[in-house]
Amino acid sequence: xxxxxxxxxxxxxxxxxxxxxxxxxxxxxxxxxxxxxxxxxxxxxxxxxxxxxxxxxxxxxxxxxxxxxxxxxxxxxxxxxxxxxxxxxxxxxxxxxxxxxxxxxxxxxxxxxxxxxxxxxxxxxxxxxxxxxxxxxxxxxxxxxxxxxxxxxxxxxxxxxxxxxxxxxxxxxxxxxxxxxxxxxxxxxxxxxxxxxxx
Amino acid sequence: xxxxxxxxxxxxxxxxxxxxxxxxxxxxxxxxxxxxxxxxxxxxxxxxxxxxxxxxxxxxxxxxxxxxxxxxxxxxxxxxxxxxxxxxxxxxxxxxxxxxxxxxxxxxxxxxxxxxxxxxxxxxxxxxxxxxxxxxxxxxxxxxxxxxxxxxxxxxxxxxxxxxxxxxxxxxxxxxxxxxxxxxxxxxxxxxxxxxxxxxxxxxxxxxxxxxxxxxxxxxxxxxxxxxxxxxxxxxxxxxxxxxxxxxxxxxxxxxxxxxxxxxxxxxxxxxxxxxxxxxxxxxxxxxxxxxxxxxxxxxxxxxxxxxxxxxxxxxxxxxxxxxxxxxxxxxxxxxxxxxxxxxxxxxxxxxxxxxxxxxxxxxxxxxxxxxxxxxxxxxxxxxxxxxxxxxxxxxxxxxxxxxxxxxxxxxxxxxxxxxxxxxxxxxxxxxxxxxxxxxxxxxxxxxxxxxxxxxxxxxxxxxxxxxxxxxxxxxxxxxxxxxxxxxxxxxxxxxxxxxxxxxxxxxxxxxxxxxxxxxxxxxxxxxxxxxxxxxxxxxxxxxxxxxxxxxxxxxxxxxxxxxxxxxxxxxxxxxxxxxxxxxxxxx
Lengths: 199, 588
Known about the structure:
The complex is a heterodimer of chains A (199) and B (588). With 199 residues, chain A is of the alpha/beta class. Chain A is 41% helix and 22% strand. Chain A has eight helices and six strands. Chain A has helices at residues 19-32, 80-85, 106-109, 119-126, 135-141, 148-157, 164-174, 177-197, and strands spanning 7-14, 36-41, 51-59, 72-77, 90-99, 130-133. Chain A has a six-stranded mixed sheet. The longest helix of chain A has 21 residues, at 177-197. Chain B folds into four domains: 3-217, Rossmann fold; 224-322, Rossmann fold, CATH 3.40.50; 353-521, 3-Layer(aba) Sandwich (Rossmann fold); 529-587, 2-Layer Sandwich (Alpha-Beta Plaits). Chain B is 35% helix and 17% strand. Chain B has 21 helices and 22 strands. In chain B, the strands form six sheets. A seven-stranded mixed sheet of chain B has the order 3-2-4-5-7-6-12, sandwiched between helices. A five-stranded parallel sheet of chain B has the order 14-15-16-18-17, sandwiched between helices. Chains A and B meet through helix 1, strand 2, helix 2, helix 3 and helix 4 of A and strand 1, strand 8, helix 11, helix 14 and strand 20 of B. Strand 2 of chain A pairs antiparallel with strand 8 of chain B, so a sheet runs across the interface.
């Protein structure tokens, strides 16, 4: 394998949570830092409230846009069960950043499946390096509940080898001017939380 | 030198802009849709249209290119089946202005009903086929494709795949290079009219052109040899190249970016230079078959899967097979990851289609479905679609079942965009051949599944202009359907009454269930609701709607106020009157 020097990130969540924007911000920050970048996203049917995943890889030379199982340095999930679902992508020493949100799927509401009651315990057992983030509350306190994705990007940014100025540049490039300030604060809140956690 | 991070689809649009394309047409389909959407940002310089279907789109481009205009056509892989008719003969008549048909395959079937390999169409139609491996190559392939198309007077296919179209990577931004040609059709019937006497000459010229292209392909930098260790040489096409470089970093590679006509010279040169030859291509073994036919020994589909998409991981398995090692046992799934609730895509909260499918649940009928969001009603708890075949197939299959004498009444379901695409001819057949099926058009005024593209019934065009709104009801009447009604799918009493009358009738009915896609118009249908927990008896009737805003992990359901858009269906099905307007509406 020749993926030495390539950093891989996997984002997981539920269609409509803003995974694509989060992915674009990370990729843009890597591009601004002068690295080669490849990302992959799923469009179309998967966006109708289904489980979605986006992948970002950056380094000096990147071939595949897809992350191989067991190689992601960071797995960030916007929903707890989705973190469990995509665990297989994370490297053994990888960092899991998980929004503490629970979204009940229709399969549970209609009685075909059960939402695991011990989901927090499962997360703790499965991920030796885990940062739970109450992103929804943080975003709501900024009066911008749709910015939970950017809170998570802020948190995961702490674990990636990219400079703060490139993250700021990426936010400017990918977020509309009218929403930039609130999202900048969402990003900073997430980043500060990760830094203070000591994890 | 400016570099931008573009998806493959954005890069194709950029390439078309820089190549001087002035006419672009297509029909939305994942993973191709964003190409035309991106290109339409240049509508001052490029005429862009969503055509009713892919056949029309290619015909529009065929006409435009004969005036000298450079053209781009976009579609997903199954769209090329619809456009195959004009493609096969356009190869004979040829083009004047360059024409590139961009066709996006979906290996792994992320958003498609089949996994067909568009590369067969290069050989089938005898036209050049290019296969980019990332966004930069996607942009370059459009420009090279336009140039080849004009030089050899042939349409060119650009085959993308989901992982090219929906991956982002940096692209160097260049200048637009307009064509120097003056627009104007020049009469030349022996060239453009394939009646037998001239068609036979065109057929001969097509073979001459293929021979000329076969010489050109061996000179093209799109196919390049990378010499490394020569004990193993790999021929890799399209995005498979990227996975090969990770799974076999030491191997020599013949990277194929122009795969038809086959680059025989480069293949022979490469094969002679390596000890063992492995062919890695996604989906069918097209190159492999051809290389074997050249008399060259190679390994291919014995170790590389022909089903589903490839990846570095998949090729590492191929590598183990090639090296005679045992298959790696799949990693054990940790206990924490077992029994997770599935989360497939569902009809959105407040989707107007839900009212129709819930209503159909009260009748013992067969439902032939079609391609669109409504295919999601196949799954529990709605479980109300029995078949899906292709665009428009829901209408014609209903007629077939009906005329075969199926003992249960048959209801065909189609969306508005799909109706304009391929549904009208099926409806015409039902009227003409006097069937008795019920056809429901779920008319949400947009092409919803692919992300809300306009269509002939939406009153808008891709150029941002107002347009006449084609009436589904009037089309139905003009076809000869006598019973045509329009209903509000949010009113379950009306839905039930109308369905009952139509299903009991012994002649065809056309029901147009009309309500805007709430996701497209971005507004609530009504006030956000909540469950009065005292009145709710936990009967779970509302959960039969399969609405993602109604969450229930215990005894009684609750409404997620962030998802609810107040469609009110739950209020209509609740026998206890437990659904009420949310008290703190301002919290939402």
